[in-house]
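Hey team,

Filing this mostly as a record. A colleague (T.K.) asked me to run one chain through the structure pipeline before their review meeting, and I want the input and output archived in the tracker in case anyone asks later how it was produced. No errors, nothing strange. Just documentation.

Input sequence:
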Amino acid sequence: MTAIRHRIIVASVLEQCGRFLCIEEMVDGLLKLSQPAGKLEVGETPIQGAVRETREESGYSFLPTHLVGIYEYYYSASQTIYLRLAYTGAVFAPEGPLTQPTDPSIHAVHWLTYEQLDRARERHRSPFVMQCVDDYLLGRSFPLDIVTSFLPARPRESG
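Output structure:
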């Protein structure tokens, strides 16, 4: 019997003027759309991870204000359960030119309307993409302190 793997994914659902921050990334040889998201790293809280992933994948910074939702998905091909924590908040472009994403798998960064995202469902990396946006638009929102961390304090990164 093969053990089921678990992955904690942190993501940001960021909207400005009716458009959502999305990244286009190469996954198994195909370009896929998603929100900035990735695996939680050892020693970081989900909030820290979401901020880091957003900066690495899009070049944007953001200040989380709420948790949009917690999502679970089983991917049978890898026998992995993914648990995604999606945050929203205020998004900030860096002063000066937008930096290039530091993640080499990122092909492009887009601000897409709901309609553009909806029409591109076949290119979504996972079912999380539209569900997170739908929940955001429904006003689903939980306080950041709904997730309690017992991790030791981690120093803040500059930048």
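Quick notes for T.K.: The helical segments are 46-58, 114-119, 128-137. Residues 5-145 form a domain with the Nucleoside Triphosphate Pyrophosphohydrolase fold (CATH 3.90.79.10).
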